[in-house]
Amino acid sequence: MRCRATCGLALAGLVAVTAPAAAAGAAQAAGGAAQAAGAGAPFTVDDLVRLERITDPQLSPDGRQLAFVQRQTDMDANKGRTSLWLLDLAPRRAAPRRLTGGKASDSSPRWSPDGRTLYFISTRSGSGQVWRIATSGGEAQQVTDYPLDVGSLKVSPRGDLLALSLEVFPDCPTLGCTRERLDARAKDKAGARIYERVFVRHWDTWSNGTRSHLFTQPLAPGGGAGGAPVDLSRGFDADIPDKPFGDDEAFAFSPDGRTLVFSARIAGRTEPWSTNFDLFEVPVEGGAAAVNLTVANPAADTQPVFLANGDLAWLAQERPGYESDRFHIMLKDARSGSARSLTGGWDRTVHQLGATPDGKALLATVDELGQGALYRVDPKTAAPVRLVASGTVEAFSAGRERVVYALASLAGPVDLYSVALRGGRAERLTDANRERLAARRMSEFEQFTFRGWNDETVYGYVVKPYGFEPAKRYPIAFVVHGGPQVGFGNLWTYRWNAQTFAGAGYAVAMIDFHGTPGYGQAFTDSIRGDWGGKPLVDLQKGLAAAIEKYPWLDGERVCALGASYGGFMMNWIEGNWPERFRCIVNHDGVFDQRMMYYATEELWFPEWE
Question: Which of 467, 407, 415 is nearest to 440 (CA)?
């Protein structure tokens, strides 16, 4: 029921169309800094769609250059395109330059070990293939010419191999066999399909019987393909990376480049009930059976990260079948083979894991009281040091002395920043939407707390409407998040964007009710078997607390809106709290939990919940 990629902007658009008249002229804020009164137009859904989107920052091996992906929206073609950008970090305040462009989409920039070349995935040949380009300039050169699209990509520490994923039929001996079968199916006029096992789909995509396999591609001395790709996961009844959201975080080269460690779930016909991912190690040239490194753990093991000395770090859960269990950092000593938890006593779940090139520090992002914080963790002492406290860090890339990260907030979309590994003041590196947002005014927001279910502390956010005047009262968009183990927090989203509601004249109230991550694992766990209990109490008390605290909220004009679990809550509110709202908007919400077995293919979810 978690709403990741499939919940659209329909409600934001609905609110924009039905907006009430908004008061104008009061000071607003963007990123916490007040703007001049009367400056700027309201932020709209159209503005949201047109924003430039930065992803995937990648520091060069020497830490002097930064590659990243930037997405532009072609409104006429009704599609988005991605390109590669490069930023020289040596001169301060240098401007990013566009490295690739055109009608194709370029993504996944990955550095060669010498820092002179970027390998990336591009559609410029008509399918997703690996290309390379010199960072000094010049034309890109095609590296692979497979009959299938390349999924994810990494470069070996020795620069002699690529690791990449391709979706193949497990019984096909060649890539061409998979291509021929797919083409034959496309020509078949019969639309029926027989499934002999689940999964039959992943979210909005029907399964076609292919598996995502991990390959290595040898490189010639000049950087081009130097032979046939080697399937390292042949015989594995698993997707590597996992579908539908897996990427290159699922596999990692050892420091000497001789082996790969990858995460895979091998569960046979019980796959939809299983969250048991294990880590496997295999030689990069293949020819030997993969070794299961985490066979003792029946829960998830994922995101392998090698340190420079060969120690292996990864994220692990403890409870089988529970996808929202706490992820803690494990570390395996390369010499002794013993493993220990670095963050077992830390009541936070880690989302992303990385390491500095010298292996002296691990980096981790965590949900923390409504923020998406970035921490440095000492692999020897396990001591965590917070580097970024406010906003949400969506991605990062670590160098020897600093870490570059993609940061967003309720006040604005992702831009790139840099902070020293020892901590200190952050430096902003990009301002991708400066021109687009110069004539727009983002609304101020504030986090607040109240006593929720069982008198426990619960957090929420309010966002002021466009043109806010303290003496006026404004209608409330009471937005309920999905998941349910997914929070709103101080982040930017292209689905339920608070600034679009505020730009339409609504005050926005959002509650991180029981079940939300970032407030301790017990708080997250507490929603199990109680979807309509604790969260409803928190929502009732949270709305009342917000109206009492902020007199400009009009408690007589409240509309509740929600998607996924939020949609479930809309149905629950309709039956248990309808008198409080002028309107209730439900997007893809379940109304009968028994029907979850038909509404989701991820059966571990209803089994646990």
Answer: 467
Chain Cα centroid distance, residue 440: 27
Asked whether the CA dihedral 124, 125, 127, 128 is positive or negative, the reply is negative
Determine the Cα–Cα distance for residues 70 and 235; give it in Å rounded to an integer.
Answer: 37
The residue among 587, 604, 546 whose CA lies nearest residue 320 is: 604
Nearest Cα to Cα of residue 241 among 145, 314, 153, 312:
153
CB 387 within 8 A of CB 361: no
E strand segments, 190-271: 201-202, 205-206, 211-218, 230-231, 251-253, 259-265
**Can you name the residues that pair with 67 across neighbouring β-strands?**
58, 86
- Window from 6-20, 343-357, 558-572 with minimum mean pLDDT: 6-20
pTM of the predicted model over 0.90 = yes
In whole angstroms, what is the distance from residue 502 CA to residue 476 CA?
9
Neighbours of 551 (CB within 10 A): 11
Domain 52-163+215-231+284-436 has CATH 2.120.10.60: yes
Q: Quote the tokens at residue 31.
A: 């990123």
pLDDT for res 488: 87
Say whether 52-163+215-231+284-436 and 10-47+439-608 share the same fold.
no
Q: How far is CA 116 from CA 112, 133, 143, in A?
A: 7, 9, 16
Token digits for 198? Answer: 């689940």
Q: Model confidence over 150-169: pLDDT tens digits? A: 999 999 999 999 999 999 99
The encoded tokens of residue 298 equal 């029946």
Residue position matching structure tokens 């991820």? 602
Q: Name the CATH architecture for the domain at 10-47+439-608.
A: 3-Layer(aba) Sandwich (3.40)
List, for residues 79-92, the tens digit of each pLDDT value.
999 999 999 998 77
As a whole number of angstroms, the distance between CA 411 and CA 304 comes to 33
Domain boundaries, the chain: 10-47+439-608, 52-163+215-231+284-436
